Amino acid sequence: MRIFITGGAGYVGSHCVREMCNAGHHVVVLDNLTSGGHREAVDERATLVVGDLADAELVRGTLSEDRFDAVMHFAAMLNVNESVSKPLRYYQNNVSNTVSLLQSMQACGVGKIVFSSTCATYGDVTVAPITEDMPQHPITPYGRSKLAVEWVLRDCAAAWGLGATALRYFNASGASSDGTLGEDRKPEYHLIPLILQVPLGQRADIKIFGADYPTPDGTCVRDYIHVEDLGTVHRLAIESQQAGEFRFYNVGTGHGASVREVIEAARQVTGHEIPAIETPRREGDPPELYADPSKVIRELGWQPAYPTILPIVETAWNWHQAHPKGYAS
Ligand SMILES: NC(=O)c1ccc[n+]([C@@H]2O[C@H](COP(=O)([O-])OP(=O)(O)OC[C@H]3O[C@@H](n4cnc5c(N)ncnc54)[C@H](O)[C@@H]3O)[C@@H](O)[C@H]2O)c1
After folding, report:
1. Which residue has its alpha carbon closest to ligand 1 atom 11?
2. Does any ligand 1 atom lie closer than 6 A to the CB of residue 316?
3. Rounded Cα distance, 232 and 245, in Å
4. The domain spanning residue 206 has which CATH number?
5. Which ligand 1 atom minimizes the distance to the CA of 14?
6. Which pLDDT tens digit goes with each residue over 112-167?
7. What is the helix (H) or strand (E) element at residue 322, kind and residue range?
8. Could you tell me the residue range of the domain that residue 312 belongs to?
9. Can you give the pLDDT at residue 36?
10. Residue 328 lies in a domain
11. End-to-end CA distance of the chain
12. Any bridge partners for residue 209, and if so which?
């Protein structure tokens, strides 16, 4: 297949680009390299176009140069806290730019898309595991921007036969098994890389926000899904996508790890003490979020290769040790 991948220089996108190249697909990446993307992360078998999704002329021009079969759409902003203070940035990039991308796709006859959605579309859930039929009531502009795109995709599937899949990922984590691709965002705000900054000597300790949640060890539980497992599920989704069909799947391992368990895994993997400081809860952090992935397993034949936290942290540590300052470019 010929695939156009937005945000393919970012964390999840770069692993998916590699998965698609390994499977023999032809890949063109569009990334502005300003909000999380790295030139070095793009597989050398793919073509990188440096530019912004908001540049409709560039997007349309690129799409019309090649006979693309499909789009994978990763480009977005995803800092949940920032989205609360800067909602317009999030609606502009995540919603308006996606609408513009879909207009270009329609104009150029590209009829299939896989979209990076999120468990944040479910909002403040009190039940775990999360199934796809649970109501989506996102509580942040980020979550709402992603849900809005799901609505747009559903409507386009009905109106002009777009084939679309929304993959609602839980916590993307880990790094490529060969240690060459990994997570590098500045400032960092994801738990595993923050913990690993302690053994790297870049931070003195790790803060635990809330140790009094109604969970087995009192800390929040999240579903950590390895970034290469996200690569596989994207490939399976695009290869099976039918025209006119809108699908949506939760993508997680089906069980969670608590903050304390992740810290303990990092201690085991790194051999470092990693001091942890308990601090008050943060607003809006539900106690437990993990997926019921049975729908994606049943319908796409997907299975996570990294079902537990320890090997996930191991891959992350390999990457961070080899790239303590992140990518060179
Ligand atoms: N990381 C997670 O845990 C997680 C969880 C759920 C969903 N997601 C979704 O997955 C996708 C990828 O996340 P990530 O962690 O890889 O983030 P990332 O920031 O590493 O990647 C996003 C990429 O998109 C690019 N980009 C952003 N806006 C752009 C624009 N206007 N034009 C061109 N390029 C642009 C960035 O430069 C970056 O390379 C996002 O859509 C995110 O919402 C991520």
Report:
1. 74
2. no
3. 20
4. 3.90.25.10
5. 16
6. 999 999 999 999 888 999 999 999 999 999 999 999 999 999 999 999 999 999 99
7. helix 309-322
8. 191-222+254-322
9. 86
10. no
11. 29
12. 279
Cα(164) to centroid(ligand 1), Å: 18
| Residue 174 near ligand 1, beta carbon < 6 Å | no
Residues 247 and 207 in one domain: no
For position 166, what pLDDT does the model report?
Answer: 98
Beta strands in the chain (DSSP E): 2-6, 26-31, 47-50, 70-73, 112-118, 163-169, 171-173, 206-209, 221-222, 224-226, 246-251, 257-258, 276-279, 288-289
Of 9, 65, 4, give the one whose Cα is nearest residue 36: 9
Please report the pLDDT score of residue 284 as a whole number: 78
Q: Which of 33, 74, 253 to mutate to test the pocket of ligand 1 (most atoms within 8 A of CB)?
A: 74
For ligand 1, atom 12: residue with the closest CA = 74
What is the model's pLDDT at position 276? 97
126 and 258 belong to one structural domain: no
Percentage of the chain beyond pLDDT 70 is 100
Rounded Cα distance between 154 and 144, Å, is 15
CB 184 within 8 A of CB 191: no
> In this predicted model, what pLDDT tens digit does every residue of 49-74 receive, in sequence order?
999 999 999 999 999 998 999 999 99
Answer for the pair 51, 98: CB distance below 8 angstroms, yes or no.
no
Mean pLDDT over each residue of the chain, to the nearest integer: 97
Domain membership of residue 183 (yes or no) is no
- Give tens-digit pLDDT for 297-324: 999 999 999 999 999 999 999 999 999 9
Separation of alpha carbons 9 and 171, rounded Å? 19
Q: Which atom of ligand 1 is nearest to the CA of 190?
A: 3
Residue appearing with tokens 């800092």: 79
CB-based contact 80:120 (threshold 8 Å):
yes
Ligand 1 site, residue 33, Cβ cutoff 6 A: yes
Does ligand 1 have an atom closer than 6 angstroms to the CB of 172? yes
Q: What is the pLDDT of residue 285?
A: 86
Same structural domain, 142 and 242? yes
